[in-house]
TrEMBL record:
Residues 3-168 form the Glycosyltransferase 2-like domain. Keywords: Glycosyltransferase, Transferase. This is Glycosyltransferase. It comes from Bacteroides caecicola. The keyword Magnesium does not apply. It holds the Pfam family Glycos_transf_2. InterPro entries: Glyco_trans_2-like, Glycosyltransf_2, Nucleotide-diphossugar_trans. SUPFAM superfamilies: Nucleotide-diphospho-sugar transferases. The keyword Transferase applies. Belongs to the glycosyltransferase 2 family.
């Protein structure tokens, strides 16, 4: 038995939320519970959409926060309402493939030592027929551990984890924009075991503006904040910290067209 954990805020498109929820309710292995956190007040249309699905699906539980608190805080609150040990993450503008949960839950059944299971994702524009890249990740734990010292080791929206292990690690840390990466390094530092399915289980919505948002000094500052946190908990050494900062400075401050090329052709497949 497992829960699905989502968080939605006022800028989400109702049509995207519908596509997301429809993909959850057409799985070959159905979730036993869906916990949807409203991260602050929503638009009337979003509220109507959520109410419609709650009426149709009694296994859907809604948690309303009075103010927008950001993704990490919203997910920490949502975890309190998840009834089962296994929790699957999902973003409200993405689309799960029909066999996503069947494949990932099977990993935990066959490999009880695994604490976090993610997978590849396919990034698309507008609709799933326009896949522009596939974000692949290393499969096995030793590779994941090495990879995590330089890049995020899992695809957050395609993750299933053991709730108790996340809580033991302190939940999502208050690191703006990098709450999930901060959590994974916390868990890895505590000896949690990771696995990534070597196939895509989810369509991840993106746009040409994505690469613009991944540039500029503000982005650099947030990344340095994350890297400093990784150094403070002993996950990376000072030389690795300096190397990571130097690489990110170059990528974040280069022209958007070049940064987009690097993401699509060098960091993706």
């Amino acid at each position: 038995m497992f829960s699905v954990l989502l968080s939605v805020y006022k800028k989400e498109q109702p049509a995207y939320l519908r596509e997301c929820l429809d993909s959850l309710f057409t799985q070959t292995l159905m979730p036993d519970e869906i916990v949807l956190v409203k991260d602050g007040p929503l638009t009337d249309e979003l509220d109507r959409t959520i109410d419609e699905y709650v009426q149709l699906h009694p296994e859907m539980k809604v948690v309303a926060l009075p103010q927008n608190r950001g993704l990490g805080c919203a997910l920490n609150e949502g975890l309190k309402h998840c009834s089962f040990s296994l929790v699957a993450r999902m973003d409200t503008d993405d689309i799960a493939k029909p066999e996503r949960f069947e494949k990932q839950i099977r990993v935990f059944a066959e490999h009880p030592e695994v604490d976090v299971c993610s997978a590849w994702i396919e990034e698309f524009y507008e609709d799933t027929s326009r896949v522009v890249s596939v974000k692949k990740l290393p499969e096995l734990h030793p590779e994941i551990l090495r990879y995590a010292r330089k890049r995020c080791p899992v695809n957050h929206p395609a993750t299933v984890f053991r709730k108790e292990k996340v809580l033991e690690a302190g939940g999502y840390p208050p690191i703006p924009m990098y709450e999930d990466y901060g959590l994974w390094v916390r868990m890895l530092a505590r000896g949690c075991r990771f696995y990534n399915l070597p196939e895509s289980v989810l369509y991840f919505r993106t746009s040409p503006d994505t690469f613009k948002r991944r540039g500029g000094w503000e982005y650099v500052k947030k990344e340095i904040n994350l890297l400093n946190y990784m150094r403070e908990i002993g996950f990376i050494s000072t030389p690795v910290f300096c190397q990571n900062v130097a690489i990110r400075l170059v990528v974040r401050l280069m022209p958007n067209s070049i940064r987009g090329f690097i993401y699509k052709h060098l960091l993706r497949k």
